Every structure is written in C-alpha cells, then in structure tokens.
Amino acid sequence: MREIVKGNVLKSVIDDLNKYSNNHELNNIRNTKLFRNLLTDVLIKATKYENDGSYFVKTGDIPAMWLRDATFQVLPYVSLLDEIPDLYYLLTGVLKRELRFVRLDPYANAFNQTSSGAHWSDDDSNISISDHVWERKFEIDSLCAPLFLANNLYETTGKTDIFDEQFWNTLSMIIDVFKTEQHHNTSSYYFRRKDCPSNDTLSNDGKGTPVGYTGMIWDGFRPSDNACVYGYHIPSNMFVVSVLTPLLDKIPKGFEALKNEILTLLNDVKSGIKHYAIVKLPNNHLGYAYEVDGLGNYKLMDDANVPSLLSLPFIRYCSKEEPLYMNTREFVLSSRNPYYYSGTVLQGIGSNHTPVNYIWPISIAMEGLTSNDLNKKSHQLDIISETDNDTSQCHESIDMNDQSKYTREWFSWSNMTYCQLALDLINQDVRR
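Above: the chain's sequence. Below: its structure in token form.
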C-alpha cells in the first residue's frame, strides 16, 4: 500500500475513483457510462478543500452546503475505503466541516463556504441568522446526517479518531436542541418568510401548527425543505433512533451525563413512535404515518427526500423484512400515496417540493437500495439512466410523461444516490 499523506487528497482520490469505475462494468453500456461520469462529479465540481483540513461540499447548482445533502453526496465512498484508503481523509474532512457548522448554528440546515452574508431569501434577515448561514430551517435530519456519516465510517474502518472531544461536545449540543424541541411550545425557535409559497415558511407566526407532547422531537421542515404539516416528522424521529443508538457504547468517560440524556431521549422518542406513529393505512394494514401532531391528526404519505418511510432500512432503523415497514412500503409505492405518480415514462415517488407528476430519481434509486432483489436493483438503475435526457446527470425530478422536462440541471445528491445503488449492485455481485 502506498503511503497515505493527510491533507488535500482530492486529486489522488479522483484519479483512483476513475481507475475503479473504469475497471467495473454495470449491466449495460448506458448505466456504465453514467456511473463513470457521476462517481467523481461531486469531487470535481462541488468539493473544496479548506485550510483547516475540512472539505466544503455544495449541493450542486446552489452554492450552499446542506448538512443532509453533503452526507448523502459522499456516503457512497464509504464502501470504497478498503480499495481507496485516501477517501478516509476526504470523508473525515467533510464530517469535520459538518460538525463545525452544527456548532455554529444547530438550527440551520444550509451554510455558506465563507461568512459572505448570502441567504436563500433576503427576507430571512427577519430572523436571527449568521452571515455564514444560507438558510435557518430547523430539520432534524440535518443534525442526524453527520452522525450517520460518522457511524458508517466507524463500522467500515473501526477507527475511533473521529470520536474526539469536539465530536462529543457537538453531540451534546445536538441533544440539547432535541430536548428543547421535545417541548416546542416553550422553544424560542421560529421561522417566518414573506412572499413565498405556504410550504416555505411556518404558520402560526413562525411557530408551526400546534402540537401536543409525544416524547418525539418537533420538526419544522421536512427533508424536502418544505414545512411539516404536522410537527412530528416520523422518518426523522426514526433517524434519531438509528444514529444515536450505535453511539451509546462509544461515549467516553467524562460524558456520562450525556449518555444518560441520550438514553432518556431514545426511550421518549421510541415510545412516541410506538404510541403515535403506528396507524391503519389505506391498505387496511398497520404501518407508519409520515407526520403526526400528538393531537390525533396524522398525515398518510411519503416524500422522495431521505429520510423517508421508504428509506427506513437504508437509514438503518429497521430491516427490509420488518412487517410494519413492509406494510408501509406497499402503501407508499402505490397510488394511495398522494406523491406517488405513474406515467408513460416513469413511476415513483415525488415531492411537494417539485411540480405534480414529477418523480425523483432519488426515490427510484431508494426503491432499489431497500430491495434484496438484484434484478430489481438493476432495473432501477436502468430507469434512471434511460431518463437522463442524454445529459449524463440525474436531476432533481422528472416529468412522469416527458423526460425532457425536469427540475435542476445539476443536483449532486441525486447523482450520488444513483452511484450508491450502482456500488451496492457491484458489491453484491462481488460477494456472490
């Protein structure tokens, strides 16, 4: 093994990834070509090395770094660490940048590379917002995403250097926010934006729709960046369970109080899921609601953005065979899900973030990533590559009847979820 040098390893990693993709073929020429084009796309076009040894990863055609997006943009590389060791320094550098941003403002979802004062909307100046913050929408998944990356790194490498004192101090800050938002009625957080669609701001003077206590954590905005209809977003609360549980046995001496706080929080959240999230679905089976308010109301749907109900095995909340998940999966992949669309070109899950009848390649890939069927995985890859409109990009969403109509020319999260599925298929083929 060649000597590994810490620091900016972007060039060497890109070279190694190109060699890797050139040595692997997928089930057809079109998929192979798209995979080879996209595997390094995020590093060449979206990733910047910082002087502190971290890496800033913008989401694509928007210049900001979303904590959630950045994690899923680089997550596929974790599976290649054995073959390309330099990836470890890149991935830990991304994690370092994410944790730094969390400490800057744990209520923000997206950040500028510098303290430029740029914001998604000029109207966001009505809320307390740092010049380093692009947008201050509180989304539970934004705080879970760095922890998900850290857990994946540890599980793959066994290395514990990422779990330093700064990591645990950042986690302590995250837990404080989660505890505060279990009682959102007394939280100081609000989000108001004028002259925008109703799903881009919070109702009730920026506090969101009323909720009752459930033990779960209140969420202002979905992973789509659109406002929650009911304040407890179930997939995000499940994400909390999946990322905090593996950290319990790694908490060092000196952070015993933090461990006790996490245990209490996990018990509360799991109890809330059990008592409020399990409902009768339109298919007459018990399954999971998408959102609840603790006052008797719930939302039956799923959205393409991860964490989603479809993605629960992928975020490691449950197995693919867990009965409640299987019932929920049947529902969300059917016309009874208001965001499931079926047209002449595509069928799959969309989002209220994009136009009606537009389907997200992320959800198409996730359908494959949460299946054990290799033929299904190959089929989902085919669907995406056949509807890229010859752009060699996956896009955000595509008209179900016309692949020439799509949103966002370049959306790196979508590209890398395609690569995640491609690598999943390659790795399973190797193990056979």
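The domain at 10-336 is CATH 1.50.10.10 (Glycosyltransferase).
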